[in-house]
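Hey team,

Filing this mostly as a record. A colleague (T.K.) asked me to run one chain through the structure pipeline before their review meeting, and I want the input and output archived in the tracker in case anyone asks later how it was produced. No errors, nothing strange. Just documentation.

Input sequence:
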Amino acid sequence: MKYYTQLSNVELLKILEEKEKYQPEAIVLVNEILLQRSITDEDVSQAKSEINFLFNKKKERHEKVEKRITRINEFIDEYFGIKERSPEKILNIFCVLIFIYNLTVGFFNIKGLASYFNSKIEGYIAGSLIYILQLLIVFLLYKRSNWGWVCYNGLYVFLAVSGIVSLVLYFYYKSEFPFIRGNPYPDLLSSIFSTGIVLFLNNRKIVGQFSIQNQGRVTTIVVSLLLSVFFIFFVSFL
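Output structure:
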């Protein structure tokens, strides 16, 4: 009673216009207060005007939200929708998934990469640059840049070869040094995963989205294999 008696006539009338928002006891109380007051046509008109203003403002906000949701849905359907299952949309989905993967896993790999350097500062700078470079390559791939396709093929060819080499070396040295403990399955999974990505990127429908001829595709794979083998064995001899 103390609260409602302090409200103006317009505020009380607004409560009656939106009675579904209040408890029945509150509506009864508001009616009793209004009966004790003199209500003018101006009060009623002002109350309805304010209610309409708030209603229209709420409606506008709702329409803006609906428009944004519609735009987002149209964008997703146009570039990532899988109803048509077009090669363009499949590659877009692949780029998004790889971007998220690199964004999360790559962050934790910075510490591992930094351990190869004598200075922690230099190590973290180098690890961060490699991390950013991976995201940039994914972006170039999404933009259908030939460099994105070439770099990503080269990267996963290297990862596939290094995984296979690690797997072979594990079983080779295991027979000579039985006390060596380790788990070869992460290397096996890494090789399978990397090989799958290389095969996906070399699918005709995927390659067809880039201006890369068959000769360029074969050259990229061969050069990547040679560089991977050279780098892996060069590091091992060091």
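Quick notes for T.K.: Residues 2-71 form one domain. The mean pLDDT is 81.
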